[in-house]
Amino acid sequence: MKYFFIFLATVGMMFSVDQLLTETKTNIENQKEIDELIGLVEERDLQLSNLQTTIKESMEIADIESFISEINGYQFDIQEKSQDKNRLKFSSDRQENTGITESILLVRTNEQEEQYQVIYTIKATEAAPEVLKAYKEKIKTITNGLFTKNAQYFSCVEAWKDDMIDIVCFINFVKTRLNMTVIDEIKEPDFYTWTGYTPKWNNKLQQNDEEINLQIAVRERVGDRTTITIGTPILIHEY
C-alpha cells in the first residue's frame, strides 16, 4: 500500500511538472513572437502606437461566481441581454501607471452546458524595456492562473511613420526576416494586406487547405502618414 501511494504521488508530480512545462513553453513561444513583432517595427524606424495580446479559451465553468472570486485584482460588471439570456457577460478593465491596460471578458455561450468564452486582452502604447517586462509578466501570470494549454494566443503591433514608405521594400524585408511565404495578397488604393506563414512561429490557424500565422496591413493616410499593423496568427484589431 505504501508503494501505491508513492506511485500516485509520483504520477501527480509528473502531471504537474508536465503542465508547467507546457505553460512555460506556450509563454516562451508567445514572448518570442512579441519580441520579433517589435523588432520588425524598430528595425524599420517606425513609431509604435499599440501592442496588443489577446488570449481566448472556451471552458466549462460550473460556478461562475466562485470562478470570478478567484481572479484577484479585477472588479467585474455583469451584463445580460434581455432578448438572449444565454448571452450573460462579465467584464472587467484595469489600467496601471505603466501605460498597460488589461481587460477580462467572460461570455456564457451555453447555459445548459455551463460553457463560457474567456477572453483576456492586454495593451501597451510603448515598448520600453520596463513596460515590455511588465507586459510579459502579466501574460505569464494570467496564463498560469486562468488558462490551460488549450488557450489561443493572438498578438498585434501597430506602428506609423510620418512619411510614405516603400511598400515593396518593406514586405520583402518582412519576408526575408521571418522566412515568410505569402499565401494571399490584397492591393487597394492606399491599402495593402498580406496573409502568410512563417516557420519561425508555432502559433497558427488553418485557412482552407493552408496554414497561416502572420497577417500584415499597410495603410497610407492623408498627410503622408503610413500605418502598419502586423499580427500573429491574424490581425486582431481594426487598421
Automatic annotation (TrEMBL):
Which InterPro entries does UniProt cross-reference here?
DUF1779, YwmB-like_sf
Q: Which domain of life is it from?
A: Bacteria
Question: Can you name this protein?
Answer: TATA-box binding
> What organism is the protein native to?
Gracilibacillus thailandensis
The lineage, from the top, is:
Bacteria, Bacillati, Bacillota, Bacilli, Bacillales
